[in-house]
Amino acid sequence: MVSTSTPREKAVFIEQASIQGRSLWDDARTRLLRNKAAVIGLFILGALVLLAFLGPLLWIHEADVIYRDRVQLAPTFEHGHVFGTDAQGRDLFARTLVGLRMSLMVGVVATMVSLAIGVVWGAVAGFIGGRVDQVMMRLVDVLYSIPFIFFVIILMVVFGRNIILIFVAIGAVEWLTMARIVRGQTIALKGMEFVEAAHAAGVSRAAIIRRHIVPNVLGPVIVYVTLTIPVVILAESFLSFLGLGVQEPLTSLGNLISNGARDMEIAPWTLIAPAATMMLTLFCFNFLGDGLRDAIDPRDR
Amino acid sequence: MLGFTLRRILISVPTILVIITLAFFMMRVAPGGPFDLERPMSEEIRQNILAAYGMDQPVWKQYLDYLGGLARFDLGPSLKFRDKSVASLIAEGFPISATVGLLAISLALVVGTILGSAAALRQNGATDYAVMGIATVGIVIPPFVMGPILALVFGLYFGLLPSGGLDPLRGMTPDRLVLPVVTLALPQIAIITRLMRASMIEVIRSNYIRTARAKGLSARAVLSRHAFKSAILPIVSYLGPAAAALLTGSIVIEQVFQLPGIGRQFVQAALQRDYTVVMGVVILYASLIVILNLVADLLYASLNPKVKYD
Predict the structure, then answer these.
(1) Cβ(A93)–Cβ(A52) under 8 Å?
(2) In 3D, which of A39, A147, A212, A168 has the Cα closest to residue B16?
(3) Do the chains contact at A151 and B149, CB–CB below 8 Å?
(4) Which of B180, B187, B169, B189 lies closest to B100 in space, CA to CA?
(5) Would you give per-residue pLDDT tens digits along chain A (301 residues)?
């Protein structure tokens, strides 16, 4: 059958044959599921995401309703204030969920911004190579040694504290490592035998990119994305803690922690609840990221 | 070595220039100047104020003036504290920040290398797991959570240490530095411990360590004379990033523990739009980081015989 087929059919045959085998992703999934810490992390993270996005809609208290007679109530089941209330008499559980939602959103959106910049920068540098590559990566080196969090702070001061700017500014800071990873992968892949082999077998350029290049670049990128999200969440919390991040009436975990730190002497739960939520989230992302790295990048094991 | 040093310095200079330029022009495009009060002032007064601060000049002239000032360590006047220059504000805050930072990195280096080595020598034992568990917690808990918690526990519940501020008469007394230094050092202890453990595990498996053991050296001598020297190298190359992390962390620490260092001045200046102070501190921080990176690189090159200087 193979002997009489056209190159195109051969390519289809090769594609189907590789689907029947265990793909890169099957292997990765098996390895990931074997990693208990990563699975638990993924599970808790899923629960946190559901809570953050559905919780505020379903919970009996709204995050911004003020109960004047219940200011700084310790955690109690009476009235359903399971995390207590804050200095203004707002339900802390509802606020923690809303804050978590904001932190997760900042984490994901800013990481996507860094992903977009980093992938384009790295891929261009890697593909073109030569002098362009040198200049582009030298620039990355220079930018690496600049403490960007200060420039994010300047940006916040200069342009006022709006949330879009937080997304973009933090994202624009975190793209450097992404660019390095993508460039390295691109250069490595360009010269790989299996890419040439696929080409020789008549697989179209688009199919090579789809089936060989993208999956191989995707692995490290996904790992890095998972590890960048907690870094971004921390960066936003850092800004909010200094009063330069998300502004009222919006709130984030960093904002809540900042308020909690101020009131901790009389109402320690206002610090503990958001701080514990954030640490749990960061733990989960880190475990998941480490698990993904072990699963996707077999060289490391 | 000399060529290597010179080349490394040559890379640092443009980096600092980029930082200064970036900071300068970001401040210039800021909408709303520092002199925009609620009450509008007459055009004449406005012009006079702008002229007094040199802001009526073309931008390129202002930029060159600023660079010229920098060369003489003149960072211009503060826009909010009328009688103070940026340089004098920094001179007030810097000793405090530097003391806390130096103590923190020293603490982190000592504790981190000891814990890391201990964990490596008992790999997969109870000590190892305990140390690594604590190290992971240290990395996940950011200083702005750890600081308030430590202040709460040691300052308020146990009443052992003052929870913030400087001694009104004697300034920086040891008891007031304990909590800030520990909080600042904790994440670095965690990272250095992990680095040290990994590199020590690799080193003690290498051939020359086995040779040293085989020729009859005691375990102690092998560790101190041979293993430690090469295991410490990754820590040395981490010193640059550590310096950056410490400087960033110090902003939070000074806020949490109410220390009047440059980190706190920076945040207050940022919130009050005192542009010249913000710029001065950013340039100082960035230059420090670049210089410390340079020092760490040179130190690494001089310690590691594998580094070639070409």
Answers:
(1) no
(2) A147
(3) no
(4) B180
(5) 444 555 566 555 555 555 555 666 777 777 777 777 778 888 888 888 888 888 777 777 776 767 667 666 666 667 667 677 776 777 778 888 888 888 888 888 888 888 888 888 887 777 777 787 788 887 787 777 666 677 777 777 777 667 777 777 778 778 888 888 888 887 787 777 777 888 788 887 777 777 777 777 777 788 888 888 888 888 888 888 887 777 777 888 888 888 887 777 777 788 888 888 888 888 888 888 877 877 776 554 4
- A241 vs B144, B156, B247: nearest CB: B144
CA angle at B86 for the pair B101 and A153, rounded to the nearest 5°: 65
Number of domains in chain A: 1
- Which phi and psi angles does B37 have, rounded to 5°? -95, 170
State the Cα torsion B241-B243-B247-B249 to the nearest 10°: 70
Find out whether B234 and B199 touch, Cβ atoms under 8 Å: yes
d(CA A93, CA A98): 9
Kindly state whether residue A184 falls inside one of the protein's structural domains: yes
Q: Using a CB–CB cutoff of 8 Å, tell me whether B286 touches chain A.
A: yes
Partner residues linked to B8 by β-bridges: none
Question: Which of B19, B132, B145, B237 to substitute to test the interface with A, most A CBs within 10 Å?
Answer: B145
Is residue B66 less than 8 Å (CB to CB) from chain A? no
Strands (E) in chain A, as ranges, are none
3-state secondary structure at position B167: strand
Question: Looking up tokens 């923190």, which residue turns up?
Answer: B104
- Asked if A73 and A80 count as a contact pair (C-beta separation under 8 A), the reply is no
**Candidates 1.10.3720.10, 3.40.50.300, 1.25.40.70, 1.10.760.10; correct CATH number of B90-260?**
1.10.3720.10
Q: Where are the domains of chain B?
A: 90-260
ipTM of the complex: 0.71
Could you tell me which of A237, A264, A252, A259 has the C-alpha nearest to residue B150?
A264
DSSP string, A9-33: HHHHHHHHHHHHS--HHHHHHHHHH
